[in-house]
Amino acid sequence: MRKILITGALGQIGSELTMELRNIYGKANVVASSRRVKEGHGELMESGVFEIVDVADGKRLSEVVRKHNIDTIIHLAAILSAVGEEKPALAWNVNMNGLYNVLEVAREEGCAVFTPSSIAAFGDSTPKNNTPQDTIQRPNTIYGVTKVAGELLCDYYYHKFGVDTRGVRLPGLISYKTLPGGGTTDYAVHIYYDALKHKSYTSFIDRGTKMDMMYMPDALNAIVQLLEADPNKLIHRNAFNITSMSFEPEEIAASIRKEIPEFEMRYEVDPIRQAIADSWPNSLDDTAAREEWGWSPKYDLDSMTRDMLEKLTEKLGL
Ligand code: NAD
Ligand code: AKB
């Protein structure tokens, strides 16, 4: 049985992945960690061990790995695209030095490492449609720069030191449990909250801007599936393109209107996040993930919309 440490466990992905992994591997085998305790995570805190770990502190990371005999680190602590553009030095420190510390501890203690990359690892010069698995990667955000460097660093630790590193390039994730942590695709989560509360949404991303997206249950399945995939079948290891759907703001609005006909969409475009979105692909080619470890998403835009609205109605007590 694996003994897993999750960094950044109170974020959008970690708050759900921790519970999923505790169900699969047992509560005693999944240690959650974050830089600080945050309100609203009572269920996660009570269902297993929690440790304070700032990933920029390699010594602390190493202590916790040894204390709990960890053999797998799922590294989620990061600064996302929009916050990264506001605080590039912080993004570099957390995303690069944090990952370096994780890989060093993994090398010393013999751990496997899973860490997500992102559609942000691509840039203006990347082919926009059906973006290939192996292609030009010249991102122009600090977040994207750290994601490409992270993909390469994970490859390096696998080839040089034999660390079992794995990862996917996640698209924008849509979920109802924990709000997203300051990215460009966050509009596609906020829209559901505002649709239910106000029957309208003002989008900071402009009409016509397509980006890859995925519903959280598919992302959780992808992470577990790749973690458990036969290593002999993996050619790419650290940066598999995966996607479930690609849409622009008008398309998600139309999907919401099927459930809430009076829903209205307005636009107040944020130039910084719009420029980031414009530099990312319209749609990814995820053939390598399908072929190498059987990736196959379950949700499309309309089935996600129905589930999001149902779960959020319950959560918000509407
Ligand atoms: P998030 O921002 O919701 O969560 C990250 C967590 O890390 C936060 O709780 C934050 O407090 C914590 N953190 C920040 N600095 C830290 C530090 N120094 N030490 C320890 N913890 C620290 O992010 P997320 O959406 O859960 O993303 C997890 C990973 O998935 C990241 O690598 C991100 O780039 C990647 N990803 C996410 C998405 C998405 O849409 N959510 C898409 C593509 C890739
Ligand atoms: C962001 O928008 O920064 C993230 C991502 C796609 O990496 N959601």
Which key phrases capture this entry?
318 residues; UDP-galactose 4-epimerase, domain 1; six-stranded parallel beta sheet; three-stranded parallel beta sheet; binds nicotinamide-adenine-dinucleotide; binds 2-amino-3-ketobutyric acid
Structure described in brief:
The protein has twelve helices and 14 strands. With 318 residues, the protein is α/β, with parallel strands linked by helices. The strands form four sheets. The chain has a six-stranded parallel beta sheet, with helices on both faces.
Give an overview in words:
- By secondary structure, this protein is an alpha/beta fold.
- The protein folds into two domains: 4-171 and 214-241, NAD(P)-binding Rossmann-like Domain (Rossmann fold, 3-Layer(aba) Sandwich), CATH 3.40.50; 172-213 and 246-316, UDP-galactose 4-epimerase, domain 1.
- 44% of the residues lie in helices and 15% in strands.
- The chain has twelve helices and 14 strands.
- The protein has helices at 14-25, 42-46, 58-67, 81-86, 88-109, 142-161, 187-198, 216-227, 249-257, 271-279, 287-293, 301-315, and strands at 4-7, 30-34, 50-52, 72-75, 112-114, 117-118, 165-166, 168-170, 172-174, 200-203, 211-215, 240-241, 245-247, 264-267.
- The strands form four sheets. It has a six-stranded parallel β-sheet, with helices on both faces.
- Strand 1 (4-7), helix 1 (14-25) and strand 2 (30-34) form a beta-alpha-beta unit.
- The termini are far apart.
- The model has no long low-confidence stretch (mean pLDDT 97).
- The structure holds nicotinamide-adenine-dinucleotide and 2-amino-3-ketobutyric acid (AKB).
